[in-house]
Amino acid sequence: MASEPPSNNPTILSSPLIAVTAANGTAHFSVHSATLLAHSPPLNCALTGPWKESTTQQIDLPDWDGPTVARFLQYLYIATYSSEPHTLLPHAQLYALADYKDVPGLRQLTLTRLAQALDAPHWRTPNNDDAATATTDAVDLIDYVYAHTRSGDTIRTVVCRFAVKQLECLMACEDMEALLSKGGDFTIELLRMAAVVAKEELAAATTAATTAAATVNAQRAAGRAVGQANVDAERIRLLEARVQVLEARAAAAVMSPAAAQRAAADRMSNVRRRL
Fold it and tell me: How many CB atoms lie within 10 A of CB 47?
């Protein structure tokens, strides 16, 4: 596996510059050769192997737009990249380039950033203007991902799961209907993902119901315990009163009639107050 950025050591920064072009030669960049060699095995091979790039010391990326290549090179230097808030497509484009040039750290970062963008608040409140504006961007994202990645790519799972959860919102866009009508991988994987999500939601609902039932049963058991404690307390109070009566009678048996009568009266008075 290639090493990861940042490319900030003196050896890298003092290495020769390589010319990088993009967008059919309309975008130009200069990059330290050691940066490309350290972080991308395919670029390393191109620049050191028996290929024209090793002679020209130039890398051409004609099928990639300038901003995407700029973000790619930015990551090689500082281990992150710039993007506008709430944008979707740039992350997918950069994912495809990172996959093409085998930069796993960048590939993972684009997935994380894309997942965060898809979890933005406007998708959780689909009736506002932000969501309406973003719907077309989301459909463009889906179309791009399924046109530029392979079956089984992680980014497809991320995008497909999002499409299932936001299908009602996405279907308001005519482009989504057109995309589904094409059939192909996306339509098939969307149906499969819908089944997976439904099973997950069923399992979550079942777990919640089981937990709720256990809570109710625990509350009922606690209620029964409190009730029993109250009953036991009442029994104790009555038993204590009975003991008082018995003690009064026992004392009367050994006292003079007058004293016993007064003691018995006092004890009975105490019993009545307790009752």
Answer: 20
